[in-house]
Structure formats: C-alpha cells, structure tokens
Design goal:
Strand content: under 5%
Shape: elongated
Distance between the termini: 52 Å
Helix content: over 70%
Order of helices and strands: HHHHHHHH
Number of domains: 1
Radius of gyration: 17 Å
Largest sheet: none
Number of strands: 0
Structural class: mainly alpha
Amino acid sequence: MTGVLFGLAFAVAAPFWALMILLPGWSWTRRIIGSPLIVLPAVVIYAVLVIPALGEVLPAVVSPTLDGLRDLLGTADGAAAAWAHMIAFDLFAGRWSWLDSRERGVPALVMAPVLLLTILLGPLGLAAYLLVRARYPVRASA
C-alpha cells in the first residue's frame, strides 16, 4: 500500500502542474488552479500515511534530532509520507506563484521553467519566482 500511495502522490498533483505549465491561458486553468483545494488529494495521501504513525511521528517533529528524523524518513512509510508532504507544499507554492504571476503579467514562457524548478526542487523554485516577481509589479486594475 505504501508504494501505491507513493506513486499516487505525484499522480494526483501532475494534472494541476500540467495546466499551469502547458495551458496557462485556458479559462478553465484559472478556475481550477484558483481553488486551494487542488492540494487536498496529496494532503489526504499524507494523512493516510502519517495518522496511523502519529506515535512515531510526533516525537520526531516536536523535538527533532538529525538521527531521529533520519530513522523516521529511512523507512518506506516515512519516505512516502515525506514525498506526499513535499508534493502538497510544492503544489501549494507553485499555485501561489502561478496565480501571482497572472496578476503581475509575468509571461508564461518565464513561468514555465520556474514552475518546473518548483516541481523538482520546491524551495529553489519558490526562490526563483521571488526573484522573477521583483521585476513585475502588480498591474493596475482597469
């Protein structure tokens, strides 16, 4: 079951990434990506993996140590939960970046590599967007 959930974590997020990168101008993309609920499937997968293991997870996150986190994440369940966690937060950050970029008029060709970087290396993609964002002030409403 853990392997299935691991594989499913990205599969439930991939369509939203595809919309933002491949169809940024489609009217349905804004409607779909406009909902923060798009991260919910990955969150549910995370919950399915973490809730049964709260007895192990809580001590590791309340008082984290390098050895404790290594031991937790060194299991199949721990790695799958960490993956679902990353997928959910990367999608949330990508969603925010995409929505913000639309308000600022950032070209889709600029955003595509930023979003790809966010998929692959979340925090670096977010940092890249923050740099891009500084060049594009919010457009005035008509």
